[in-house]
Fold HTH marR-type domain-containing protein.
Amino acid sequence: MLKKEDVIRFSAGIHFSQERLFNAFLREKGIKNISISKFRVLEVLWKNKETGIVFSGICQETDLAKSTVSIMLSNMEEQGLIYRVANGTDIQNVLFYPTEEGCRYKNEYYEIMDKIYEIIYEGVSDEEKEVYEKVLSTITENYKKRIYKKKRK
Protein backbone atom coordinates (compact mmCIF):
# COMPACT_ATOMS: atom_id res chain seq x y z
CA MET A 1 0.00 0.00 0.00
CA LEU A 2 1.24 3.52 -0.86
CA LYS A 3 2.03 6.12 1.75
CA LYS A 4 -0.49 8.97 1.89
CA GLU A 5 2.09 11.42 0.51
CA ASP A 6 2.58 9.18 -2.52
CA VAL A 7 -1.18 8.89 -3.13
CA ILE A 8 -1.49 12.68 -3.18
CA ARG A 9 1.62 13.10 -5.33
CA PHE A 10 0.48 10.44 -7.82
CA SER A 11 -3.01 11.98 -8.04
CA ALA A 12 -1.55 15.39 -8.79
CA GLY A 13 0.93 13.80 -11.19
CA ILE A 14 -1.87 12.22 -13.21
CA HIS A 15 -3.56 15.59 -13.58
CA PHE A 16 -0.39 17.39 -14.66
CA SER A 17 0.72 14.58 -16.98
CA GLN A 18 -2.68 14.53 -18.65
CA GLU A 19 -2.58 18.28 -19.14
CA ARG A 20 0.95 18.15 -20.61
CA LEU A 21 -0.07 15.33 -22.95
CA PHE A 22 -3.22 17.17 -23.99
CA ASN A 23 -1.20 20.32 -24.74
CA ALA A 24 1.36 18.30 -26.73
CA PHE A 25 -1.44 16.83 -28.86
CA LEU A 26 -2.84 20.34 -29.38
CA ARG A 27 0.56 21.54 -30.59
CA GLU A 28 0.76 18.56 -32.98
CA LYS A 29 -2.52 19.73 -34.48
CA GLY A 30 -1.29 23.33 -34.66
CA ILE A 31 -3.77 24.58 -32.04
CA LYS A 32 -1.99 27.15 -29.90
CA ASN A 33 -4.63 29.58 -28.72
CA ILE A 34 -6.93 27.29 -26.73
CA SER A 35 -6.06 25.82 -23.33
CA ILE A 36 -7.48 22.64 -21.86
CA SER A 37 -9.67 24.78 -19.56
CA LYS A 38 -11.08 26.67 -22.53
CA PHE A 39 -11.85 23.33 -24.15
CA ARG A 40 -13.79 22.36 -21.02
CA VAL A 41 -15.93 25.47 -21.52
CA LEU A 42 -16.28 24.83 -25.26
CA GLU A 43 -17.40 21.27 -24.58
CA VAL A 44 -20.21 22.57 -22.36
CA LEU A 45 -21.18 25.09 -25.04
CA TRP A 46 -21.17 22.44 -27.77
CA LYS A 47 -23.55 20.35 -25.70
CA ASN A 48 -25.84 23.38 -25.28
CA LYS A 49 -25.37 24.80 -28.77
CA GLU A 50 -29.07 25.05 -29.59
CA THR A 51 -30.32 26.51 -26.31
CA GLY A 52 -27.27 28.34 -24.98
CA ILE A 53 -26.23 28.20 -21.34
CA VAL A 54 -26.01 30.80 -18.57
CA PHE A 55 -22.81 31.70 -16.72
CA SER A 56 -23.73 29.75 -13.56
CA GLY A 57 -24.43 26.67 -15.69
CA ILE A 58 -20.97 26.88 -17.26
CA CYS A 59 -19.37 27.17 -13.80
CA GLN A 60 -21.34 24.19 -12.54
CA GLU A 61 -20.68 22.01 -15.57
CA THR A 62 -16.95 22.73 -15.72
CA ASP A 63 -16.34 22.84 -11.96
CA LEU A 64 -14.23 25.95 -12.51
CA ALA A 65 -14.28 29.00 -10.22
CA LYS A 66 -16.58 31.88 -11.21
CA SER A 67 -13.64 34.29 -11.49
CA THR A 68 -11.79 31.85 -13.77
CA VAL A 69 -14.83 31.32 -15.99
CA SER A 70 -15.54 35.06 -16.16
CA ILE A 71 -12.03 35.90 -17.39
CA MET A 72 -12.01 32.90 -19.70
CA LEU A 73 -15.34 33.82 -21.32
CA SER A 74 -14.11 37.36 -22.00
CA ASN A 75 -10.91 36.01 -23.58
CA MET A 76 -12.83 33.44 -25.60
CA GLU A 77 -15.22 36.10 -26.86
CA GLU A 78 -12.25 38.27 -27.93
CA GLN A 79 -10.81 35.22 -29.73
CA GLY A 80 -14.10 34.76 -31.59
CA LEU A 81 -14.74 31.33 -30.04
CA ILE A 82 -18.00 32.24 -28.29
CA TYR A 83 -20.72 34.88 -28.25
CA ARG A 84 -23.29 35.97 -25.71
CA VAL A 85 -26.94 36.90 -26.10
CA ALA A 86 -28.95 38.88 -23.56
CA ASN A 87 -32.01 36.97 -22.42
CA GLY A 88 -34.10 39.72 -20.83
CA THR A 89 -32.66 42.50 -18.71
CA ASP A 90 -31.07 40.38 -15.96
CA ILE A 91 -27.31 39.90 -16.39
CA GLN A 92 -27.70 36.44 -14.80
CA ASN A 93 -29.72 35.34 -17.83
CA VAL A 94 -27.12 36.08 -20.51
CA LEU A 95 -26.80 32.99 -22.70
CA PHE A 96 -23.46 31.82 -24.12
CA TYR A 97 -23.00 29.97 -27.41
CA PRO A 98 -20.04 28.68 -29.43
CA THR A 99 -19.29 30.49 -32.69
CA GLU A 100 -18.47 28.67 -35.92
CA GLU A 101 -14.81 29.23 -35.04
CA GLY A 102 -15.42 27.71 -31.60
CA CYS A 103 -17.08 24.67 -33.17
CA ARG A 104 -14.23 24.24 -35.67
CA TYR A 105 -12.10 22.53 -33.00
CA LYS A 106 -14.67 19.99 -31.87
CA ASN A 107 -13.37 17.03 -33.90
CA GLU A 108 -9.76 17.68 -32.90
CA TYR A 109 -10.77 17.90 -29.23
CA TYR A 110 -12.55 14.55 -29.29
CA GLU A 111 -9.70 12.93 -31.24
CA ILE A 112 -7.30 14.06 -28.52
CA MET A 113 -9.65 12.82 -25.80
CA ASP A 114 -9.79 9.42 -27.54
CA LYS A 115 -5.98 9.25 -27.65
CA ILE A 116 -5.67 10.12 -23.96
CA TYR A 117 -8.36 7.59 -23.06
CA GLU A 118 -6.39 4.89 -24.89
CA ILE A 119 -3.19 5.89 -23.08
CA ILE A 120 -4.90 5.88 -19.68
CA TYR A 121 -6.23 2.36 -20.16
CA GLU A 122 -3.26 0.84 -21.96
CA GLY A 123 -2.61 -2.55 -20.30
CA VAL A 124 -5.61 -2.17 -17.96
CA SER A 125 -8.21 -4.96 -17.82
CA ASP A 126 -11.97 -4.31 -17.99
CA GLU A 127 -12.27 -5.24 -14.32
CA GLU A 128 -9.52 -2.78 -13.37
CA LYS A 129 -11.22 -0.07 -15.46
CA GLU A 130 -14.45 -0.61 -13.60
CA VAL A 131 -12.77 -0.38 -10.19
CA TYR A 132 -10.73 2.66 -11.24
CA GLU A 133 -13.80 4.51 -12.50
CA LYS A 134 -15.75 3.76 -9.31
CA VAL A 135 -12.86 5.01 -7.18
CA LEU A 136 -12.50 8.15 -9.33
CA SER A 137 -16.20 8.87 -8.95
CA THR A 138 -16.01 8.48 -5.18
CA ILE A 139 -12.92 10.71 -4.91
CA THR A 140 -14.54 13.36 -7.12
CA GLU A 141 -17.67 13.35 -4.98
CA ASN A 142 -15.56 13.62 -1.80
CA TYR A 143 -13.81 16.70 -3.20
CA LYS A 144 -17.07 18.28 -4.35
CA LYS A 145 -18.66 17.79 -0.93
CA ARG A 146 -15.75 19.62 0.71
CA ILE A 147 -15.49 22.38 -1.88
CA TYR A 148 -19.18 23.21 -2.06
CA LYS A 149 -19.74 22.80 1.68
CA LYS A 150 -17.05 25.41 2.29
CA LYS A 151 -18.54 27.84 -0.27
CA ARG A 152 -21.99 27.80 1.35
CA LYS A 153 -20.73 28.96 4.76
In short: Residues 22 and 112 are 7 Å apart (CA to CA).
